[in-house]
Each structure stands twice: as C-alpha cells, then as structure tokens.
Amino acid sequence: MPAEIQKGLPGEFLLLFTVLIWILFVLIRLGNSQNMLNRWCFLSGMVFSIGVFKEYLYFTFFPWLISAYPSHFDQSKALAVYSVLTGIFYYFSMPAALVFGLYYCHFNEKHPRMFPWARLAAFLPAFAFGLFFPYPDTRYYQLNSRPYFLSITFYNWIYGILLTFMIVRTLYKERHEECYHQKKMVSILVLVPIWYWLTSALLVHSLGLTRYFKAWQGNFLIMVFLLVYFLRYAFRDGIMGTRFKHETFDWDKKGQLINQNARCTQHLLKNEISKIEWCAKNLTSSSGLEETGEYARIIVHSTEHLKSCLEKIQYYSQDIRLNLELCSVSDILKDCIAAYKRQFPNIQMDIQCSEELFLSCDREYVKEVLNNLILNAADAMDGNGTLTVKASVFPRREWLVISVSDTGIGIRPEALSKLFEPYSSTKTSDGHMGLGLYFCQKVMEKHGGKITADSLPDMGTTFSLHFPRKKALQNRNGNG
C-alpha cells in the first residue's frame, strides 16, 4: 500500500466507526420514514459515512484483497475506488446536509415554487467539481494540488456556515414553540459531527498541520456520544419520531398472546355468564309467565352479545387483505356520517371534504375504521356535541389526511401512549375490548399510512388517518 499511510485507528475501529454512523442514521430514518427531515438527515449521514468507510477499505480491506486475489484486484483499482469515494464524500456530503437545512427551516413550505430550484442549486457545485476534477483522480489532486484542497475546504465551509445559520436562525424564531426542544436535539446530532470534520480534517489539511492529519478520527468518540444521546432521548421523550418504551413481559411471545386473549375472553364471559346464571336461578322459582319471559329475554340478549363480541375478536384479530379500488373520499365520509345521524340526533355532524379528492383504498376497511372513530367520538361526547370529519391534502400534497374531531372529554396524556395496543381501552362499559383502535392501526399500516391521535382533557380529541400520496392519492382520472 502507499507510503502516505499514517498511524491512526486500526482498521477494525474504522469499520466499527462506520457501523456506528449507519446505526444512528438508520434509527433516524426508521423514526419517521415519511418525514423529509428524517429522510435527508439519513441521506446526509450515509454520504458522510463514506468518509470513514473509504479509509477502512483502502488501508485495511483492499490490502487483504490484493494479497488474496492478486489476479483480480490490484493497487491501481484500489486507488481508483478510493478516489471515487473520496470525490463523492467531498462533493456531496454538505449539499445533502444543506437540503436537510432547507427542510429544517421550512423553506419548502414558505417558498414551495422556489424550493425545487433551491434543492437543485445546492448540488450544482458538486456536479461542477466532478466535471473539473474527475472522480478517479481525486486522490491525486488531494495529495498534489494545494489549490484544489483549499477550494474543497472553502466550498464545504461555506455550506457549513449556511447550514449553521439556517439552523440557529430557525431555533431562535421557534424558541417558544412546542417543537423547539426536539429541533434543538436534532441540531446537536447534525452540527457537532459536521463542524468537527470541517475543522479537524479540512482545515487541518489546508493549513498543512501534518501532525494532526488523523485528528478527524476523534469523530469516533463523538459518534459514540451521539448514539448514546439519541438512545437516551428515544427512551425518554422521543427524538425525530423515534420513541422506545421499556416494558417487562413474558418473553415467550406465544404464551404472552395466549395470556392476553385468555384475559380478554375471561372478562367477556364472566359478566355475561353471571347474568345467565342469575336468570337460571330465578327461573326455577318464578311464578308468572311475564317474569319468566323477562329472564328469558336477558338470557337471549347475553348470548347474542357473547356471539357478537366473539365475532368481533375474530374479525379484528384476523389478517387484513386489501381490495384496492379508486374511491371518492367525499362519498365514503357521507356514507359513514349518514349511518349515525339518526342514532345520535343531538350530535352536530360536519363534513369538510372536496368532491375532487379520490383515494385508492379498500372502501370497506376504511369505512370500518371511520365507524370505529365516529362511535368513539360519540361515546366521548355522551351523545351531545360536535363531530367534524375533514379530508385535506398537505404538506406539499405528500399526504391525504382524514381527521375525525370531537368536543368530548378528551384522553388523559398517560393513556395516549397505549391507545393502539391490543386489549387496551379507556372505556369501562360493556362491549369495549380495546381492539378497535388496534384494528384501525393495522388497516392504516396495510395502506402504507398511519393513524395518530391528539387530545386535550375536557377539550376533545382528533384522530387523523394519514394516507401517502404516492400510494393512495389520485385525481379523477387516476393519475398521481
């Protein structure tokens, strides 16, 4: 391998360094895969990881590959791969981070027409560098052309300053908003490793501080810190859409599910069997046909209720298979509301939906989800109040959202986190087994979307069904 090898972290640590970066940014991506901030944070993190990964390949993996397969891989190929990866890292890492910054400061929402051009402009200098300094020769320019390295340093520092300005300015403007704490944590995840790299790698090399050429590897400790930092907040308040919850449970999943079902069925059967038992005892001592008939009606009601509930358990627990068709959102909402207007005459029901909205979905499953939400809302309002069902497209037409809002008693904050768990219910009346919202979540996941809940005690609750535009939203002709 070349003489420019310097002492630094062993190859195994460089590989571990790369894996830590991948783990952190994959967790960020999984936190909310539909959020553009998460997507571009993940993308910029992956491009940054090339900077470490290429060092591992060139100084550790490629020497082994050359010695093991000399006829297939040689030093010139190793240098070419290293040069290409270096070029991608130098040219594209900061533009990707800058696009993240544009989303961070809501440039896409404030200037929707300009945003696509701004995003393209962020990458134009990167393409220009690739034309003037070809990727396979990047290593040559890096070692032999001081003007080249100075221009690379200046280029990346300008991007770093712009990114920092956007983030700091946004934090200052949103310092009184609810999302401020989240955005402050995100700024630490992004800015700390970027500025350490800009200083310890680019600035040090530009100034010719040979003694500190490997100082950039100190970012390894920073990545360990950031991963711990991310996990700490993921287990507390959540960060970038990721929230982990520690729960002690029977690790034998099959046994756990059997226990859950057994508890639900036991609770269901216990109440109805006690009624049947009570009626049976009274039938033996009843003296009149009217009294006997009343007990018989209670028995019939209980058995019908048992049958209905057991069918509901089976229906809500079964695998969901969608039958997709193009549906008018307005028609679906009108059908659902019409079914309950007579049942709840004291609830004002309002539909806000454009006739032009169409959705590719399973009509019956979506109606069942809406029926669940409407009944929950009616129950929360005790039959009196205002129910608003609204369909809209936002932001930048990436989601079609159907929301069901009520003016009921709301949901306690401690209960919100468990809303969509099976057999979890905030209701105490008969017939509520805690499967309705779990079922709604399963249906939305099958549609590639999600369901969320926002609630304030004594103020009301809003459930929102998010359908992704790419999979669901179409116009009357079926075009995206």
UniProtKB/TrEMBL annotation:
Database matches in PROSITE patterns: HIS_KIN
Which domain of life does this protein belong to?
A: Bacteria
- Listed EC numbers: 2.7.13.3
Which Gene3D superfamilies does this chain map to?
Histidine kinase-like ATPase, C-terminal domain (3.30.565.10)
State the Gene Ontology terms under molecular function. Answer: phosphorelay sensor kinase activity
Signal sequence coordinates: none
Which segments does the entry list as coiled coil?
A: none
Mark the transmembrane ranges.
12-28, 40-59, 79-105, 117-136, 148-168, 188-209, 215-235
Is Transferase included in the keywords of this UniProt record? yes
Alphabetical UniProt keywords: Kinase, Membrane, Phosphoprotein, Transferase, Transmembrane, Transmembrane helix, Two-component regulatory system
Limits of the Histidine kinase domain? 264-471
Q: Provide the reaction this enzyme catalyses.
A: ATP + protein L-histidine = ADP + protein N-phospho-L-histidine
UniProt xrefs under SUPFAM superfamilies? ATPase domain of HSP90 chaperone/DNA topoisomerase II/histidine kinase (SSF55874)
Q: What is the official name of this protein in its record?
A: histidine kinase
Q: Which organism is it from?
A: Lientehia hominis
